[in-house]
Amino acid sequence: MADSWEAEAGVKALFLEGMGSFTLAGYRLVKTNLFTQTRPGGQIDQVGQRSAQGVEASLAFTLPGGFGINANGTILNANFDDFTGFQDNTPPGVPEQAANLELSWTGMDGLQLRGDLRYVGRRFSDNANQFRIPAYTVVDLSATYALTQNVALDVRVFNLFDQAYAQTTYSDQQWILGRPRSIDFSIRANF
Questions:
Q1: Residue 107: partners with Cβ closer than 8 Å, 6 or more residues away
Q2: Contact 166, 178 (CB under 8 A)
Q3: Which of 34, 78, 102, 140 could form a disulfide with 47 if both were Cys (CB 3.0 to 4.6 A apart)?
Q4: Residues 139 and 161 sit within 8 Å (Cβ to Cβ)
Q5: Can you list the residues of the chain whose pLDDT is less than 50?
Q6: What is the value of pTM for the model shown?
Q7: What burial class does residue 103 get, using C-beta atoms within 10 Å of its C-beta: 0-12 exposed, 13-18 middle, 19+ buried?
Q8: Which positions ≥6 away from 170 have C-beta within 8 Å?
Q9: φ, ψ for residue 2, nearest 5 deg
Q10: CA 154 from centre of chain
Q11: What angle do CA 13, 14, 17 make, to 5 degrees?
């Protein structure tokens, strides 16, 4: 049976009379007696210990005129601490850096606009760290218009610059690509 423990310490504060907030935290997470399977249908291996330690931060501002900024990011170091043949390697699928930035504007009779930038750092697709998946940055845009108090129209543009990127992997060398540039329209209703 897998076991785990976590230690975390951080600070959280408001500033500018509540118009801004930030968080900063450091953590260490250890998991023992895990099982891993690199390929679907492949051999299952036991991992003695896997750990991650890192720092997370977030910052938010509510600005005059209906504008807002939200940002967050993490830097981490994940390792196989006790895994025969893969000691000190980074577990597959774990980016060592990630960050998000959202700019928003709310105003004009129920209209809200948002721009989101998402960064995911490089990852590996295998326990041996031989197959590296490149980092990527994607920009999404969205607009919401409240038609009534209970009905809203949403328009979202995903991957504005049509970046080709690997969202996840299927095996060591097979990548599942992220969504290409696309537009979604939807109507939401609350009852």
A1: 65, 66
A2: yes
A3: 34
A4: yes
A5: none
A6: 0.87
A7: middle
A8: 40, 176
A9: -70, 140
A10: 23
A11: 155
